[in-house]
Every structure is written in C-alpha cells, then in structure tokens.
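Input/output pair, single chain:
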Amino acid sequence: MIHLSVAIGRFFEALFFAMLKVAGTIAGGVAGIALAGAILFWIARMLIVRRKG
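Output:
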C-alpha cells in the first residue's frame, strides 16, 4: 500500500512539473513575441522620425 501512494505522489509531481514546463514555455514565447514587437515598433518609430527630420 505504501508503494502505491509513493507511485501516485510521483505521478502527480511529474504532472505538476510538466504543467509548469508548458506554462513556462508559453510565457517565454509570449514574452519573446512582445519583446520582438517592441523592438520593431521602436525601429519603425526611429525611421519615421528620421524621414520627417
């Protein structure tokens, strides 16, 4: 009976860490896209200001 509870505990631990890994990957992807968008916006703004000036 003790072995079964250890196995269940390890299963839920692995499930929990897998969910954290997926959430971290998604958060990293969203942060990367946001950073790329901010850089592109900054570059476009600099080009527009340079043309007007």
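The helical segments are 2-52. The CA atoms of residues 10 and 16 lie 10 Å apart.
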